[in-house]
Amino acid sequence: MPNLEVDKDMMIEIFEIKENVKKSVFAVMDNRLTAAHLASDVSALIEQLDKLEVLLIGEPLVQPVPPPAEQKQEVPQDQIPAQQPAPEQPQEPVPTEEPKPEEPKPEQNQE
User: Fold this and answer.
1) How confident is the model at residue 78 (pLDDT cuts 50, 70, 90)?
2) Which letter does DSSP use for residue 85 in this model?
3) Could you please report the per-residue DSSP string of 2-29?
4) In Å, how far are 87, 88, 90, 91 from 94, measured between CA atoms?
């Protein structure tokens, strides 16, 4: 196996991101961060590891995963439940109350 040199700065960045992922995992477990924060850190780590993989091997070993929007599977039309319109109900006018005149509050007698 040939000896390959990897950029020291790139490795330091990968190790820093790895530490951020560790901290995010613990923060999510303690309910101090949301899973979105963790996903962001993991995504950054994966991006750096992909760059490292290309440097070391020359090409990615695994094909990238398509974004979720592209993973949608088409549902055949015969499996989609038909939406039936709701039966129409006669609309009765709702009686509105006329505003009552404000009654003056009785004055309190001070002795």
Assistant:
1) low
2) P
3) ------HHHHHHHHHHHHHHHHHHHHHH
4) 20, 17, 12, 9
Residue type, 78: D
CA atoms within 13 A on the CB side of 104: 3
What span, in angstroms and rounded, lies between the C-alpha atoms of 56 and 43? 20
Distance, in Å, from the CA atom of 7 to the CA atom of 3, rounded to the nearest integer, reads: 13
User: To 10 degrees, the CA torsion angle through 43, 44, 50, 55?
Assistant: 180
97, HSE (Cβ side, Cα atoms, 13 Å) = 3
Check: pTM over 0.90? Answer yes or no.
no
